[in-house]
Amino acid sequence: MTELTEGDKAPAFSLPISEEETFTLSDAKGKNLVLYFYPKDDTKGCTVEAIAFTALAESFEKANTIVLGVSPDGLKSHAKFAKKHDLSVLLGADEDHAVAEAYGVWKEKSMYGKTYMGTERSTFLIAPDGTLKRIWRKVKADGHAEAVLEAVNGG
């Protein structure tokens, strides 16, 4: 699969965000969508990132932008994570990592000499017309939400 680049059409997706609801790319039609992929609920970097996006939720909303975090964790894990840290961002359960694969962020990783497949922390800013406006790969959580908001606001 060729790597997505800015200007490409965003791959369509559908993800459960609660027991009753799914979120699809078309749900963001006419709005910006910040689609941020993170490895695992309630780990240090992922928590820092989710709390930062939540802290800026009102600013993203004013900028006509939806924020959706995506990880391979299930809905129960997401619900516990959101409750524990009082998160307001949407969290999508990509348990089969199909969306991560479509966006090219399901990668081979290594830790302590072991290799495994996992999510590479990455963010995609999708414009209201469904094109990829900005892409951040191998994201560092600290300061990232602020940088994304700046990009949303034309910075």
Automatic annotation (TrEMBL):
PROSITE patterns for this protein: THIOREDOXIN_2
UniProt KW keywords: Antioxidant, Disulfide bond, Oxidoreductase, Peroxidase, Redox-active center
GO CC annotation: cytoplasm
BP-aspect Gene Ontology terms: cell redox homeostasis; cellular response to oxidative stress
Secretion signal span: none
Enzyme class, broadest EC rank: oxidoreductase
Keyword DNA repair annotated: no
Pfam name, any one: AhpC-TSA
CDD domains from the UniProt entry: PRX_BCP (cd03017)
Alphabetical list of SUPFAM superfamilies matching this protein: Thioredoxin-like
GO MF annotation terms: thioredoxin peroxidase activity
Catalytic residue list: C46
EC number(s) per entry: 1.11.1.24
Gene3D superfamilies tied to this protein: Glutaredoxin
InterPro entries in alphabetical order: AhpC/TSA, Peroxiredoxin_AhpC-typ, Peroxiredoxin_BCP/PrxQ, Thioredoxin-like_sf, Thioredoxin_domain
Thioredoxin domain span: 4-155
Catalytic activity field: a hydroperoxide + [thioredoxin]-dithiol = an alcohol + [thioredoxin]-disulfide + H2O
Alphabetical list of PANTHER family matching this protein: AHPC_TSA FAMILY PROTEIN, THIOREDOXIN-DEPENDENT PEROXIDE REDUCTASE
Family to which this protein belongs: Belongs to the peroxiredoxin family. BCP/PrxQ subfamily.
Assembly, per entry: Monomer.
General function of this protein: Thiol-specific peroxidase that catalyzes the reduction of hydrogen peroxide and organic hydroperoxides to water and alcohols, respectively. Plays a role in cell protection against oxidative stress by detoxifying peroxides and as sensor of hydrogen peroxide-mediated signaling events.
Name the record gives this protein: thioredoxin-dependent peroxiredoxin
